[in-house]
Amino acid sequence: MSRRDNQHVRCGRCRMHASLCLCPVIPRVETRTRLLLVMHRYEERKPTNTGRLAALCLSGSTIVVRGHAGKPSAPLPVAPDTQPVLLFPAEDAGPIAPFAVSERPVTLIVPDGTWRQASKVRARVPGLRDVPCVTLPRGRPSTYALRVDAHETGLGTMEAIARAFGILEGDRGGEVQRQLEWVFRVMVERTLWARGALGAGAVTGGIPAGVRRGDPGGLRGARSIADDLNRTCAPVCERRDRRAP
Ligand SMILES: [Zn+2]
DSSP assignment, residue 110? Predict the structure, then answer.
């Protein structure tokens, strides 16, 4: 069954297979920092897109879809009373930490797509050239273990957002980060379980009662997990000998 045929059995909100829908465990996290996710249109329907999942968790979030052929990107809807910063390792990027004490709340702009797509965002979206670029401090490797080799410094988009909020939210940061990372882990592990790569006992939060692997219809197993997960990589850490593919 192709991915397109499979759409009807996916949750329209979290995009997981309906039997593994994450919506009951998605928290509503109130934050001072706002998330503005700039998603490439190819990401929109991918079940493995995690930027979207982060936006579902964060109350002050907006998703903008770009990359439509022949249609220039519109200026981003950044609230005028906020400090926009772009999470991307451009040549002139600085550390994110100083913005944690920003007088105005931060709007964290996060490109979501392949490295190639993300690297075009600054040039193609009006107004972004003047927005400061920030990077995360180097931390532990991605828990999206099978995709790390795509970009040495790459994290899943949601992991990067979690770490950024962990810093920007100050005293509350640790708790916000923990909540996002928990949902991320549930999503990854349910997906791995569905593909036969993880036992039910190892899935954070468990598998919903009564759900069996391969049920009902069309959980994909044939494609390699790495193939799929590599597509939603947001390379947002400090620069380290990275190359565009
Ligand atoms: Zn759902």
Answer: E
